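new request in #modeling-help
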Amino acid sequence: MELPRGPCLLAFCASQPRLEEAFRAELRGLGAPLLALWPSGGILLGADDEPIQVPPQPELWRLHGAGSAALTAVLLDDRHRVRLRREAPEAEATLLAAVREAGRAVRSAPRGVGRRELLVNSLAVALGIAVLQACASSRPRLATGVASAGPGVIDVNLIVNGEKRTLSVEPRVVLLDALRENLGLTGAKKGCDMGQCGACTVLVEGQRVNSCLKLVAQLEGASVTTIEGLARGAELHPMQQAFLDEDALQCGYCTPGQILSAVALLQEGKPADDDEIRERMSGNLCRCGAYPNILAAIKSVAGMGH
Amino acid sequence: MRLFTFQRAAEVSEAIAAAPGAAFLAGGTNLVDLMKIEVLNPERVLDISRLQLREIAVRDGGLQIGALASNTAVAEHEEVRRRAPALSEALLSGASPQLRNSATVGGNLMQRTRCAYYRDLATRCNKRQPGTGCDAIGGWTRMHAILGTSESCIAAHPSDMCVALYALDAAVRVRGPSGERELPVSDLHLLPGDHPEMEFALGPSDLIVSVRVPLNDLAARSRYVKVRDRQSYAFALASCAAAVQAPGGVVRLARFALGGVGTKPWRVPQAESWMQGRPASRETFTRAAEMALQGARPQRDNAFKVELAKRTAVRALMLSAGAQA
């Protein structure tokens, strides 16, 4: 079949998509046609015309390498060059989001910009984002009902100090042990191993937590910051530097936890006085009793003087 | 920790369907701790931490708190601090910032006792292993309960938050296979009696989804006072959440609940109603506190708790009433 002139969106769908009136309204607002194809047929939704049923297009499927994905979307530009090709785990909502966002961008663009180029670029960006979102939201919904894993080794993806890491651990493994034993990040210390001393404190999604009480299995996709991730190259984090400057340690075993807890404390809000710092640091014990200097280090970073 | 199968629920209905035989896992601060020392040994752990139950909102004259709201989120919520201060104060008096970031309201309602014998597999404990006996009775009992105890169990209830929720007349919303129901928070926790292993008025598939705190003038006056062996980061020896309305120095309405002394948070409605119409004074509050402590049965090491709890209650009542201490 002959494709419509100008920019065009091809949607190869694993099954016939339900493209409701809301979708067609968005398409009219955008001003680009959509050719939606499924194995047994297809439909051409023009910007202005009534929908046209089309016969199956096996040559187009082959040409664009469309297969078993719920959606393979191909964006063709003015001269029918492929601008973007993406696969997504869901068709209708992905297409609707792409067309809606692209339409919004086109409508709010200043005059004088090349309209067809703008249309293609807007669609490319919107489609890319819609596919990413479709992939992200589909991941936790494994099959129907609850997702099960273990008791043997399972894979868990974490972002540790900005780096994507995949951990292979039993579901009973806690974050502290995984950091130390699997990743070799021995900065987080095992003190009491029962959530009472704070030596294992790390940041999960920016919040300080006791890593000895967090199952890794629960943390799929989470970002974790340990003491190893605080410095920028050779430059220490201001809190690390302050602990050195104020001699805020003796044996040093509780120090990584103290520093991460102190970093989080200042992110949570500036303390009013010494007592507030002491109270808010109460989850980190120091058996050497370096508390006065720990307090001084935190005050210096907080700009509270001595 | 023993081996277990890990499951994750994306919807509340899924969690309830998969619940029988599994342990719900939210923040993990209590469950993971108890699994590590093999006091709790579930074969399946059902992660509910991704359910959409985190919302904290004011609705229909009440504070509605999702079961997965963290202790930190609740304690620092502006409406909680302003309109139910005892709840915020109780949460901030408990645990550490790290633990409060992970711990959830639902988990706090289900928090297990800190009785040293419950946590020690080398000793006998009727709560951990029904029918084996109680080594706490006659043992080291400084931290144990003096109210609501039985011949089978003297374990104290550990939660600060629950004490505030009792005084604030909170209700717990529970969803199970046959739908949702609401129960007063004071009905959630069971007295030990002959079956200390039965701790909650919940079925095997029941999931706490939210807590509702009525907001009124009384709640806005509520305060929490906690006494412990250290100034910070310790469980209560005695605590009290109190709310007193006393226009013109005369008690119109008063409520208080005690923590650290009961096998569950302790509230005595007769002591509260007795205060009505009496002067908001130290004498009135002292008498009410004495009434609340009636029937206290101290163990070897905790007779001090009787007097300590009274004084803690008087202090909280005075604070709430705005009376001179």
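bot summary: Chain A touches chain B at residues 140-141, 145-151, 154, 170-172, 174, 193-195, 198, 201, 207-210, 213-215, 217-218, 261, 264-265, 268, 278-280, 282-284 (CB under 8 Å).
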